[in-house]
Amino acid sequence: MNSDESLNPVLVLSDSDEDEASMYLRSVMNEAKDYEEKSIYIEESMDCEQNMMSESQIPKDFVLNLTNEQIEKINQDFRKLREYLFQWKQNAIENETKPNKEEWRNFMMNNDPLLDKIKEIDHVTTLKLVKWLSDWVENDFENLGKWVYAILANLEEPLSPDTAYFLNKIMITCINNSPKPLSLLCICLITTFFGQKLHS
To answer: Contact 52/168 with Cβ under 8 angstroms?
Structure first.
């Protein structure tokens, strides 16, 4: 990934966009309609016990209508992005400027998540942003959903119980915003990559 690519958005996606990411995710949703018999309940394939949300908050009949092949492709692309970010961070000089909560919200509302910005966010700030986003997206997923994807890419493992809790809050918001492509993408990553359960 060259320096010019670092100026590209991590993910820019809306229902009206015709960019490659949007078209890919729309194709995933369309293909999923042909694979209803193959729809998977994520909890059947995950053994992580970190889900701390009340099971009543997640609809029992919610199913992530993606095939195993589609899920693997999403995770592969996500891993590549994470590998780039973490490789860069090994040699990064810590930025002493630390925006506060309100400054971060204003920035996210008015800017796309560019790679050159995301890779400068340290681990502690990433954890704070996961927490703050879990509240912010409840009322404005349309504008902040792409930032959820970007911050997930920057999130280190293993997850603390608190971080797992906030991821589950974000997942519930995504479920409430499905079947928008970006919401399905985030649900897929939170469950299959970070090991959170859709149902207990």
So the answer is: yes
Tell whether pTM > 0.70. Answer: yes
Long-range residue pairs from 56-59, CB within 8 A, at least 24 positions apart, any chain: 57/172, 58/171, 58/172, 58/175, 58/198, 58/199, 59/175
Which residues lie below 8 Å from residue 158, measured CB to CB, with a gap of 6+? Answer: none
Query: In the prediction, which pLDDT does 18 show?
Result: 55
User: Maximum CA pair distance of the chain?
Assistant: 52
Q: How confident is the model at residue 44 (pLDDT cuts 50, 70, 90)?
A: very low
CA-to-CA distance for 101 and 87, rounded, in angstroms? 27
Q: What is the model's pLDDT at position 63?
A: 75
- For 167-192, b/e burial (b = at least 16 CB within 10 A) is bbbbbbbbbebbebbbbbbbbbbbbb
Residues 159, 194 contacting (CB under 8 angstroms): yes
Q: Domain 16-193 maps to which CATH number in 2.20.70.10, 1.20.1250.20, 1.20.58.1070, 1.25.40.10?
A: 1.20.58.1070
Q: Which of 110, 100, 165 is nearest to 134 (CA)?
A: 165
Cβ burial of 138 (10 Å; 0-12, 13-18, 19+) is middle
Tens of pLDDT, residues 6-38:
555 655 444 555 555 445 555 544 544 443 333
